[in-house]
Design goal:
The protein has about 130 residues and is of the alpha/beta class. It contains 4 helices and 5 strands. It starts with a strand and ends in an 8-residue tail after the last helix.
């Protein structure tokens, strides 16, 4: 069974690297992007990304909430986890079926969120 690919989007390199390590230790393949623009390019280039983990506060053309909304519209099967240490978004600010984790979160809670996200991934049509 192929490993699930997680796209991690955070403008803080150390946080992004730590998240990638957490994802790898939990059995996922991690891709990294420093902002929403890089994330969109990766999503357009690689059609097997199944989980998005994004911070809210990021520089660039869109923040993490706008990125999450764009991903939900363009890539509906992608499971989304949004994080922030500064913003506590209202449920109505998050796209449907999005998990929020406040920073600082533990490695254990992120691993659990990734495992939960993996359990929500639906098989692609014709690949059951």
């Amino acid at each position: 069974m192929p490993k699930i690919i997680v796209l991690i989007v955070d403008d803080e390199p150390l946080i992004r690297m730590d998240l990638a390590e957490t994802a790898a230790e939990a059995g996922f393949v991690a891709l990294e992007a420093a902002n929403a623009d890089e994330a969109i390019l990766l999503l357009e280039a690689q059609d097997d990304i199944r989980i998005l983990v994004t911070d809210i506060d990021m520089p660039g053309s869109m923040d993490g909430l706008k990125l999450a909304a764009a991903v939900r519209r363009r890539w509906p099967p992608v499971v989304i986890i949004v994080t922030s240490g500064r913003v506590l978004p209202a449920t109505s600010d998050l796209p449907a079926a999005t998990t929020f984790l406040g920073k600082p979160y533990s490695t254990r809670s992120m691993s659990a969120a990734l495992r939960q996200a993996a359990s929500e991934i639906l098989p692609e049509p014709g690949k059951a």
